[in-house]
Design goal:
This protein is an alpha/beta fold. 44% of the residues lie in helices and 17% in strands. The radius of gyration is 38 Å and the shape is elongated. It binds nicotinamide-adenine-dinucleotide (NAD). Residues 543, 545-546, 549, 551, 572-573, 598-602, 604, 640-641, 643-646, 649, 651-653, 681-682, 684-685, 689, 693, 696, 779-780 line the site of nicotinamide-adenine-dinucleotide.
Amino acid sequence: MEHYKLFIDGEFVEAASGDVFETIDPGTGLPFATVAKAGKADAEAAIAAARRSFDSGVWSNLSPVARADKVYDFADQVAQLTLQLAITESQDAGHVIKLSKFWGMLGSGMLRNLGYYASREFPWQEEIPYSGNVFAPAREWIRREPIGVCVGIVPWNFPASMAFWKIGLAIIMGNSIVLKPATSTPLTALIIAEAAKAAGIPKGVINVLPGPGGELGNILCTHPDVDKIAITGSTEVGREIMKMASDSVKKVTLELGGKSANIILDDADIDLAVNGACFGTFFHQGQVCESGTRVLVPAKIYDEFVEKMKKRAEEIRVGYQLFPTSHMGPLANAAQLATIEHYVKLGQEEGAKLITGGKRITMDGFEDGYYYPPTIFANVKNSMRIAQEEIFGPVVCVIKYDGDEEAVAIANDSIYGLGGGVFSRSNTRAVRVAEKIRTGTVWINNYHIFADFCPFGGYKQSGVGRELGAAGLAEYTQVKRIHVNSFASVESNFTMTCLSDETKVALVQYNCPTNVISGHGTISAIYKEVVNLGCKRALILTDPGVKKAGLAQKVQDALVEFCVGIFDDIAQDTDLEIVDAAVAMARELKADCIVSVGGGSVIDTAKAVCVTLKNGGKCNDHIALNRLQTPQTPHIVIPTTSGTGSEVTNVAVIKSKQAGRKVFLVDPRVIPNTAILDPQFTMTLPPGLTVTTAMDAMTHAVEALTSILAQPICDGQALQAIRLINDNLPKVIANPKDETARNKLQIAATMAGWAFTIAQVGLAHGMAHTLGILYNVPHGAACGIVLPAVMRYNIDFAADKLTSVAQAMGVNTAGMDEKAAAGAAADAIEKLMKEAGHPMRLRDVKVPEDGLDMAAIHAICDTATLFNARPVSDPGEVAELYKSVY
Ligand SMILES: NC(=O)c1ccc[n+]([C@@H]2O[C@H](COP(=O)([O-])OP(=O)(O)OC[C@H]3O[C@@H](n4cnc5c(N)ncnc54)[C@H](O)[C@@H]3O)[C@@H](O)[C@H]2O)c1
């Protein structure tokens, strides 16, 4: 008899104990080879060798391409051993030679396919371009690394194929492995090890340990040096292994049992379905975990189907596995024969009708072989044990059903979910059924087809994880995230400040790409701007007030044939539905750029339209922070208020009725391409709106200046904006036709927009957003009313900055101490507002007094509040502020 040895650390060796066992040919029932029997010492040695090889990096640190080269050599060696693998698998595991002759070719092909994929396509390293964290800009990436030492435990039904999967996937991904073949079928895994040795896979990377399952399994699954266990086996064994692995929390991949349903729909090609049902069950003597052992047949064709299935099953030739004429060989071992006999008896006791088979075959010349014929049970109820428990042999249950829904319900009434089939002449109908079955694989008009790139694994108690395909390879890796701080100093770190009282962050990232064109008559530049942006089909977005003032028409005239339409349905304080309606119109008109003409409501709608138009779907899909990857639909803005600054900012503020609040689309990619500040477009703005929108700009400037992110670039913009508003707002109020002053207010709004897009705002904005959403207070009016109170609240934290506000407002601060000067800034703002006719109290804008406490709670959670000079976390303080201006 030929003798096989263990494979440890690159060498074929005898067991440390010297023990040997015999392996039996199930077709003859006689021993045909001896094998070294691994014990504890051998398991320890194999794990140590695997650990050494992994930790040394001799394999794990190779580049995926270098590893793939070696895997190809391995595949070539396997191909050379195809015949040896075939004959040995047949003798050791009872595979008919018709089948086993393919294992070498398939194994070698799998190594090449997945080896190539792992080296060229697998995402070993993935940049995460947007992290979703706005506070800590960083380069973020994912690196996939091998897990370490893997244990592979394989069953006796497909010893070579399962060894290829376990060894192949593990080593392709850079791991080392200790493989334990099934006790009764140890040989082909050792031949595969021979191929690996001949290919020069470094020693220790692959180790093969034939021996007793329980004893070796316990050592391998509990050893501290083992990082992952991948097992194919019964659900019972899988449960045990999961328990053992849990002590040291090892990763597991479990491919376990099944009791899959093969659903024959009433429109199936009956001959194809009968063949599919027999192939799905009797292939390899039914010793296949994903076999379709519950054939579900509609009542109206049931009798005919069972009859045809019987005829087909009886045509299947059972014989010695190395005879080329045999369709089915013996069962793999004596224990399995006993199990089948037990279940067939049980089926009869349960009341199922035995249609064919059901009795062991004794073959002339092979009297001790474990032969069993195809066996069919009809009139099976799904609740019977033969329909619920895995038999793992050539025994099929044919179950009657009425209607597709019942078929799905029966299919799903199982603790398993591994495979399954649907036979139908309608692919659409079959797919609908397939989608409803809770199982890992469904074949339509076929069965048992595996493919290297298609993942295999189970739902429910059929397993955990997947093998083959990208999903299977990923199971053999760890995921590591690496974060590299883009602004690596204590002063620039926004998040670390939560542990200190120093809230200021010294971080400058200036990103203000808008092309700003300002001055009387600059609207005529729009024609050229559209061309510069590479566009031809501009959709104008505006609101009814702006349209009524004739401003949309002016823009349309300037655009001439580039204007494809006007959307004028924008309400004050845009909501998501308005954005979607505008997008629908833009899509219909095939608009390639957006021109917004209006105040913040229109501009913000337009920003969201640009993003939704570019990326598809609805506006709500795109409410996010810093997620956009590419330039958005080009956007030209013509502001008509004095105003929001939105023409240069990175934010669109949209109302979400569903969320009951304002939501923010914040991203540098929403910053408009061009802003045309032509004062002709603000001449029609009534005094009330002139002052409230100017106070919005003033609030941006003051809050950017005092924000914890403030820095000199923004300080300059903010201070100049404050000066311009202080000087020009009174002039515009006194003479609404003063175009120069109007233009300067526009410029102030833009400068304040730049300042706050970089430095952010603060508590006044948080309070104003809340009043807008809860009580519909126009944003500018709300900002103005609360601003002086918030400035006073911030005095201890921003006295220097507030002093510079006072000076920009024309206050002579000479002789004042810093706090007095800071207070004077708030007084000066109040004076300006009063003179310009701005509402001064919340009661003036119809805020209910009993709503202030609630508003305070909302305000402290508003994002803007995070950047306030003085940390805000007490809603009581904010409520006091609201009350002070009620
Ligand atoms: N994205 C940003 O950077 C940003 C900044 C601040 C505010 N906002 C948002 O902007 C919105 C407020 O914008 P707004 O204050 O500019 O007001 P708005 O756009 O809501 O317009 C207010 C009213 O003024 C009318 N109007 C505008 N221009 C006119 C003109 N020239 N002649 C006659 N009527 C005219 C409009 O018809 C409208 O009825 C709020 O939703 C706020 O959240 C956005």
